[in-house]
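Dear support,

I submitted the protein below through the web form. The confirmation email said the job was done, but the results page showed an empty box. After a refresh the structure appeared. I'm attaching both so you can tell me whether what I see now is the final result or a partial one.
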Amino acid sequence: MRDTETAQRDVRRALAREVHDRIGSGLALALRRLDMLETTAAGADPDAAARLQQVRAAVVDALCATRQVTSALRDSPPTVASFSIEDALRGFVRAMEISEPRLDLRVEGMDGLLPAAVAEAVFLAVREAMRNAVAHARARQVAVHITWDAEELHASVADDGDGFDPATVGQRRSTNGLLGMRERIQAAGGVTTITSAPRRGTRITLWVPVKERNTRHA
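What the results page shows now:
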């Protein structure tokens, strides 16, 4: 049995090296080249600059996912209880190499209390809000606070960026991610509230029931 486990661990680690060397390195190089393009495109066509930002966000997502897969392969096989929202978000921050804006990330709660579907929905929603603040809102400060207990989860992402009219969510291509966030949280039985105004920053709050989900999955 131990020989089988050792062999499986060796296979996972070898696969992790392949993913890192063949995929991760290529994505990191593409990200550096996009950074150079964004620098040279400063002051150019706004539409072209916006498309570059969208491509950069897609590459960052892929790089973040690659690093998470690599870590999972090197460690023990992931379980429902082992998924950590905080670790996943900090991995995203590292992948994006966020130095500016200033980020305040606080997570309070036991991961084992959260069903996998809730944890994944909240992680993806908060990640989308963080990415919007950094990539689109030109925020100088972003505050992320997530807390939960056996009953419910609360999360907020607040930034001091450009802001926008929440009534336009889903009407413009740049807000499709926010629409998807709402739908994802709604599917988890929760509610998303978006408070924003042009030049006044944005605050996104999430509420998701936990107790009902735990009972349903018991």
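Response: this is the final, complete result; the empty box was a page-load delay. The chain is about 55% helix and 15% strand.
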